[in-house]
């Protein structure tokens, strides 16, 4: 199969998974996303995003079984993907997260809301609290559009 054909096939699978997800057919979408996640040629940010949707499907399936959303990090991810940022921020405040984790999630939300300065400030604090957040930011879909901005160039610089 040519690269173009395999890219088209991959695109079709992704479109079908998202279409199924947005139709709220979470059981079926879960299987489709898991099949996509097994592709070893995914870019790190693609794999990260697909895994987030796997978590959301699992969360939605659990909600259906248990009658509500638990207060968890998975729920924060669900709320962020549904663009329910105020609810996500409130839940981050309730959860017992490490300081760097909470700051990183807040930075992602600010980035997704196009609040670049706030995202930058929170991200720097998150990295200061936990240096691993630099790598997480490089692979986070939330920061992809900001990585080419000069003020975010520090993320791509080698560390001593």
Number of strands: 0
Cα separation of the termini: 43 Å
Gyration radius, in Å: 17 Å
Tell me, what's the shape?
A: globular
Structural class by secondary-structure content: mainly alpha
Provide the β-strand percentage band. under 5%
> How much is the average pLDDT?
87
Helix fraction, binned, reads: 55-70%
Total helical elements: 8
What's the order of the H and E elements?
A: HHHHHHHH
Low-confidence spans: none
Strand count, sense and closure of the main sheet? none
Detailed description of the structure:
- The protein is mainly α.
- It has a domain at 1-68.
- The protein contains 8 helices and no strands.
- The longest helix is centred in the middle third of the chain and has 23 residues, at 44-66.
- The chain is globular.
């Amino acid at each position: 199969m040519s690269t173009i054909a395999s890219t088209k096939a991959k695109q079709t699978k992704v479109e079908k998974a998202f279409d199924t997800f947005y139709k709220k057919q979470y059981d079926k979408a879960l299987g489709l996303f898991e099949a996509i996640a097994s592709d070893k040629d995914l870019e790190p940010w693609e794999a990260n995003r697909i895994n987030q949707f796997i978590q959301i499907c699992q969360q939605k399936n659990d909600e259906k079984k248990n009658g509500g959303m638990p207060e968890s990090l998975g729920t924060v991810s669900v709320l962020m993907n549904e663009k329910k940022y105020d609810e996500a921020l409130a839940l981050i405040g309730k959860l017992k997260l490490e300081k760097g984790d909470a700051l990183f999630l807040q930075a992602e939300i600010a980035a997704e809301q196009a609040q670049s300065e706030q995202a930058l400030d929170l991200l720097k604090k998150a990295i200061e609290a936990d240096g691993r957040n630099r790598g997480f930011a490089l692979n986070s879909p939330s920061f992809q559009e900001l990585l080419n901005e000069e003020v975010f160039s520090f993320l791509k610089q080698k560390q001593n």
